[in-house]
Amino acid sequence: MFRRILVANRGEIAARVIRTCRRLGIETVLTVAAADRGSLPASMADGTAGVASYLDVAGVVGAAVAAAADAVHPGYGFLAENPRLARACDAAGIVFIGPSAEVLEAAGDKLAAREHAAAAGVPVLPAWDAPAQDLEYPVLVKAAGGGGGRGLRAVSEPGQLDQAMAMASAEAAAAFGDPRVYLERLLSPARHVEVQLLGDGENVVHLGDRDCSVQRRYQKLVEEAPAPALSVRDDLRAAAVALGRHLKYRGLGTAEFLLDTERARFYFLEMNARIQVEHPVTEAVTGLDLVAEQIAIAEGRGLRYAQDDITLSGHAIECRINAEDPAAGFRPSPGRVTSAVFPAGPGIRVDTHVQAGSVVPPQYDSLLAKLVVSGASRTQALTRLRAALARCRIDGVATNTGLHAMLAASEEFAAGGVDTGYLGRWPDHAPQTVMDKSG
Amino acid sequence: MQLADTSLRDGNQSLWGATGLRTAHILEIAPVLNRVGFRALDFISSTAMGVAVRTHREDPWERIRLARAAMPDTPLQLIGTGFRFISWERAHPDVMRLVYECLVRAGISRFVVLDPTHDTDAMAANARMIRAADGTEIVAALTYTISAVHDDAFYAGIAAYAAASPDIDRAYIKDPAGLLTPERARTLIPAVRGQLRGKPLELHAHCTLGLSPLVYLTAPDLGVEVLQVACGALANGSSLPDAERIVANLRELGHTVPIDDRLLARVARYFDRLAAAESLPAGQPRQYDAAFTRHQVAGGVLTTLRRQLAELGLEAKFGAVMDEVSRVRAELGYPIMVTPFPQMVCGQALSNVLAGERYLVVPDQVIRYMLGSFGKPTAPVARDVLDRIMDRPRARELAAEPPPLSVAELRRRLPRGISDEELLLRFGMPGEEVDAMRAAGPAATRYNPDIQPVLRLLRELGSRPRLSRLVVTKGDFQLSLKGRENG
Q1: Phi–psi pair at B116, nearest 5 degrees
Q2: Shortest Cα–Cα distance, B205 to chain A (Å)
Q3: Which of A172, B55, B190, B360 could lock onto B355 through a cystine, CB 3.0 to 4.6 A?
Q4: Does A25 sit within 8 Å of B72, measured CB to CB?
Q5: What is the pLDDT of residues B315-361, one digit of tens each?
Q6: Contacts of B263 in chain A (CB under 8 A)
Q7: Residue A3 and residue B260: Cβ atoms within 8 Å?
Q8: The domain containing residue A174 runs over which residues?
Q9: Are residues A144 and A225 in the same domain?
């Protein structure tokens, strides 16, 4: 059993991991870069260890050794899916809380992941390594070395292809150190649906599905569980579990899919070998603490649940509240939070790392808080979401709270099952209107 | 030197009348308890399961399941006699078999077999039944008392029997009244250990007379492998020795104790905060009381007796009842004062005092004891008392009682289609209690002692709709709220 865990991350996920560790009686040491020394997570952890960068593998492992940590929790982003960190932890005799380095490699390389999915019998979209005669437009240029929306370019006609590939490759090289790109048929309209998996290396169970179709520039903004109006639910979950079994998956992971809304067919998108930002919606409908489950698996326990032990009930919706200005093209809005008032009450959960006085540094992700509401039904969750958003007030930095309020009020979203292009089709002035309304 | 914690069961029973802890209270600290390094946790008894239903309207089976999930590494223990479940009436062996199967399925892996008359055949039969239900660890209780028959050789004999039984894995000296002195420990423990043939020995001595913390310090050198303790507010008093103090003292004497001090302190402080938030008494160190050796009533029963007298407005009779307890115990053949006998002896003593005439009112329990329902009394019952009791019409009725119902017979009588767990609850207690538990819905699973005062304030405010002004002051902080007129 772990006595001490090094939390190698920042922001709300650092606070989230620390909270579970505290509940379990596990000490935490948090890595902090200069900008985060005074952060809320830094004050929550039992100790801190300075690092030059959250991407510094040697620095993180050195901090874990110096702190006499039994394990490293990498959160999401940064080094969470980096096989080098997994290997370095292993070499230092420290447990990496995540899948094996081999699985991280298989999932991290999008081309390899596609092959695994196909081998597991999971449908994949047609793809090409390079421009070819049989290319079916529109296509998406994708980075082989990583996800998260970076290195993506949509191409609708042959004349645009060369330039799009060059730009995507340059962006991918900068983001992931890997310039390889490939082409995949662009599915539109489509929904982004995903399945939460938990495995112990032998057995794999799913913890239900989520819908993350409300996106801007391939970045998720709103997620919900379960995915509303999903006719292929059983097949989708079965496909995800098949992939997890094929990978002999150990830990928490997410199989992401694109759903062809017109033909009701789904295709493998990618495998995220880490905890997701949107994990709280799954926690709300399963009653599980997914960080505790990660720790349990990493401590060497077998899976504690058979599929039949997992019960899903109710509905949950998460809004990512970012320090960004929707009226200015979602431009990040770093600065000092002068006041932060979050709602509380039945079915409301807020995961955050900010409070009055917190500084939002410009160099990191702009996620301030995740507002998660749940209810017995989607209708009840939506009602709660609208009321909760109205009581949410963050001053000092611009936020997208007003945009969320408008989304929650929209009839199309309330109907359920919007596609990934939904938010992009909003008239340009809409967010501005909302900002005015919210004052 | 290993420790087993008894806070959740014996601590709660000894100090808080078994009613103090709810499911949420346990679950909140369970993940930490799991990591302290305890060898096992004394978790529940059939009595505590009944209290969960009756007092808290909580499903005790669900409590076990949730606790097991939160504490996967520490064996959870049930203590029982093997002849009853919740109800004081004797259960059919078939019913007990189902009880054990359900307990193992829910997450109990360690079982104490406790026969109050040290009937070794009954103990072995009980252990066999538990093993058949896949109980992993079975611990025989050698219940300590002071009497002419309970000498070291007597306990060595029971230990030899436990050593020979393939279904008994270890034994413990159980001193429910805290009578064991360091002097007696020095002869008793080696005598018992000498017969156990290598099976581990544990020690469980209540603090009722303030002796056990000292006895525990002699134990490691005498070959005891596990000491049973309690944490924070649930230690001391008539409960078990305080874990933090025992760890510190053992280490002072040079022993190694595989306990995480930081987490142990966290558990202890949690129970301290819970006791304060719920207005429950924290165990205090006790002074030696020479009179106690006469009546030998364990802590939990004493607390219950005091509460019963208080409810009747008869606190002043406590001394008289305790004197009567000593007399009744002698007349009934010196039963060891361990469940169900303290309840039986105290019940009779209470009746004798309240009725104004001895044995005018005789509880059914006492009649059943006379009829041999709980085994053979260790010493003969006083002739005149036996005659007076057995001559009653009720004694003849009970003697003619049909045997206890089997599971198949229970199924025929109880509502169709209910689960095994519900069947057992309905067997053990009135159906209305089980109905009320089901109607109450799932138990809360989260609890924070620190916010209880605020919750209480809010509840009180909610119950006063006519209140128009509220001022809360704490240090420099003042909150003033004023409602509308007629609001």
Answers
A1: -65, -15
A2: 29
A3: B360
A4: no
A5: 999 999 999 998 998 899 888 877 778 889 999 999 999 999 999 99
A6: 25
A7: yes
A8: 126-185
A9: no
- The answer to the question of residue A119 being in a domain is no
Q: Is the pLDDT of residue A432 over 50?
A: no
Higher pLDDT, A189 or B291: A189
Handedness of CA B101, B104, B108, B113 (dihedral sign): positive
Q: Which of residues 26-55 of B touch A (CB under 8 A)?
A: 31-32, 34-36
pLDDT on residue B487: 43
List of chain A residues whose C-beta atoms are within 8 Å of the C-beta of residue B72: 296, 301, 304
Last residue of a domain, one of A55, A77, A97: A97
Is there a single domain that holds both residue A146 and residue A292? no
Q: Does residue A172 share a domain with residue A61?
A: no
Assess A26–B contact: CB distance below 8 Å, yes or no: yes
pLDDT value at residue A145: 84
Q: What is the reported pTM?
A: 0.89
- Contacting residues of A for B454, CB less than 8 Å apart: none
Same structural domain for residues A51 and A195?
no
Q: Buried b vs exposed e over B50-89: b needs ≥16 C-beta within 10 Å?
A: bbbbbebbbbbbbbbebbbbbbeebbbbbbbbbbbbbebb
pLDDT, tens digit, for every residue of A42-85?
Answer: 999 999 999 999 999 999 999 999 999 999 999 999 999 999 99
State both tokens at A354: 């900010």
What spatial distance separates the first Cα and last Cα of chain A, rounded to whole Å? Answer: 50
For A81-104, what is the mean pLDDT? 97
**In a shared domain, residues A29 and A159:** no
Cβ proximity of A172 and A112 under 8 Å = no
- Residue A274 catalytic? yes
Strand partners, A394: A340
- With respect to residue A103, please indicate whether it lies within any of the assigned structural domains: no
Number of separate domains in chain A: 3
Query: Minimal Cα–Cα distance from B32 to chain A, Å?
Result: 5
Q: How does DSSP classify residue A94? A: -
Nearest CA in chain B to A1: B35
Rounded to two decimals, the ipTM of the complex is 0.86
A251 found inside a domain: yes
Over the stretch B143-191, which tens digit does the pLDDT of each residue have? 999 887 889 999 999 999 999 999 999 999 999 989 999 999 999 999 9
Chain A interface test: which of B263, B269, B458 (most A C-beta within 10 Å): B263
Pick the closest to residue A383 from A414, A341, A419 (CA basis).
A414
pLDDT band at A437 (very low <50, low <70, confident <90, very high): very low
Residues A134 and A262 in one domain: no
Is residue A111 a part of any domain in this protein? no
Put simply, the answer to whether A304 touches B266 (Cβ < 8 Å) is: no
- The verdict on A200 and A281 lying in the same domain is yes
CATH of the domain at A168: 3.30.1490.20
Helix axes A290-298, A279-286, angle to 10 degrees: 90
Nearest to A25 among B31, B69, B72 (CB): B31
